[in-house]
C-alpha cells in the first residue's frame, strides 16, 4: 500500500540504503512509517510485536527493514510458513504447492518519497531468501488494489507474483472492528484485495 507523502529525506541512490533483519529497536520507525503510509491503525505496537515473532522459524528471521541515514524508509513483514494459518481470504485449493510450505508476505511499505530506489524489490528478495532457508516453497500475499496506479499489484507481478483470486472487501472488517483507517475510502474500507502467490525457484 502507498499514498502520497512528502518529507525532508533527500532522494538517495540504491547504494545508500541499508538493510537489516527487523528487530525491536526498529519498531517505532516501522509504526510511524506504516501508519503514515497505510492509514492510521494499520499497525500497533502489540500487532507489530506479534508479527515480528511470526517471522521466525528455526532461529531465522524473514522480516526486514530498509534504512537511510538511520531512518526507517521501508519494511517487509513476513510470516514464516510455520507461523500462520490460511483464513477465509485464502483459496488453498488453487495453490500450486503444499499449503503447509507457504509463507505469508504480510506487509510491504516504502516511503513514497523514496520509491524508484529498488527498496521494495530488495526487501522482497531478502525475505524470499530467508523464507526459503526456513523451508518455504512459495509466498502468499494479499495485494491492495486501491493503491495509486495499482502500483502494488504491478510491483508484485513484476517480481513474479501470480494472481490466485480477487477478494472484495478484504479490509472491511479491520476498518469496522480494528480501528483501521483506509487512506482512500471515505468510510469503511471497501477496497479489493488480490490474493497472489510467488512460487520460489
Automatic annotation (TrEMBL):
The keyword Transferase applies. Keywords: Transferase. SUPFAM superfamilies: Acyl-CoA N-acyltransferases (Nat). Pfam families: Acetyltransf_1. InterPro entries: Acyl_CoA_acyltransferase (IPR016181), GNAT_dom (IPR000182). GO terms for molecular function: acyltransferase activity, transferring groups other than amino-acyl groups. Residues 17-183 form the N-acetyltransferase domain. This is GNAT family N-acetyltransferase. It comes from Alteromonas confluentis.
Amino acid at each position: 500500500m502507498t499514498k502520497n507523502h512528502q518529507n525532508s529525506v533527500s532522494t538517495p541512490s540504491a547504494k545508500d540504503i541499508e538493510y537489516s533483519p527487523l528487530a525491536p529497536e526498529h519498531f517505532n520507525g516501522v509504526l510511524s512509517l506504516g501508519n503514515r503510509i497505510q492509514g492510521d491503525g494499520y499497525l500497533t505496537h502489540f500487532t507489530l510485536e506479534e508479527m515480528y515473532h511470526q517471522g521466525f522459524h528455526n532461529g531465522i528471521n524473514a522480516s526486514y527493514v530498509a534504512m537511510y541515514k538511520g531512518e526507517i524508509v521501508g519494511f517487509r513483514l513476513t510470516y514464516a510458513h510455520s507461523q500462520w494459518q490460511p483464513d477465509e481470504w485464502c483459496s488453498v485449493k488453487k495453490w500450486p504447492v503444499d499449503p503447509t510450505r507457504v509463507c505469508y508476505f504480510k506487509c510491504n511499505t516504502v516511503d513514497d518519497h523514496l520509491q524508484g530506489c529498488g527498496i521494495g524489490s530488495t526487501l522482497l528478495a531478502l525475505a524470499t531468501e530467508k523464507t526459503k532457508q526456513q523451508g518455504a516453497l512459495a509466498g502468499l500475499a494479499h495485494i491492495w488494489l486501491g493503491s495509486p496506479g495499482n502500483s502494488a499489484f504491478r510491483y508484485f507481478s513484476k517480481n513474479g507474483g501470480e494472481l490466485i483470486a480477487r477478494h472484495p472487501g478484504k479490509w472491511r472488517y479491520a476498518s469496522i472492528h480494528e480501528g483501521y483507517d483506509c487512506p482512500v475510502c471515505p468510510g469503511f474500507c471497501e477496497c479489493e484485495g488480490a490474493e497472489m502467490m510467488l512460487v520460489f525457484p
